[in-house]
Amino acid sequence: MKARIMKAFLEEIDDKGMKFTMDDLARRLGISKRTLYQNFSSKAEILDAIIDSTLVEFDEKTERIVSDPNLSLIEKIKGAITVVPKYHEFYDWKILEQMKKTYPEQWERVNAALNQWDALRELIEKGIREGLIVDQNVPFLIKVIVDATNSTLDRQFFLENSITVTEALDSIVDILLFGLVKKDMK
């Protein structure tokens, strides 16, 4: 039931932004408000559950990639950058801006997660040590990668240009890792 409520919560956000009520959510689900409150005490609690779910899933997927002995270091870096959580539609600038105003505690958690990437930092540092990645300032490299991947939060741009989040992330990684210049032009 909780997963169903979280999914409906995201649908309400997509339809109405953060301005919907628990009544709206119960109506969408076809359940009583009482049943809704038996599962979650507030919109903030549902929001926390969605954030927890996406962050745990993101960490688990990243850990599987990082610990996979069959992947090269470059494949691990690419895989870590392109992890997309189950509720990825939630990570949209429009939604995050509304969250910043109405649910600042939850927004702080999301914002911190969007700007902290320890597993990727460790992979890049290893790549530099092994001579696979150019020796650059690691915090700067992480900032460039984070800023580039966070550009996928502008869902409107990607919808207008018929690009999926996965396609965008793959292109971002290819550009960051391999550049814009064709190999035969270097």
TrEMBL record:
The keyword Acyltransferase does not apply. Residues 1-58 form the HTH tetR-type domain. It comes from Bacillus badius. Pfam families: TetR_N. Keywords: DNA-binding, Repressor. This is Transcriptional regulator, TetR family. PROSITE patterns: HTH_TETR_2. The keyword Repressor applies. Residues 21-40 bind DNA. It comes from the Bacteria.
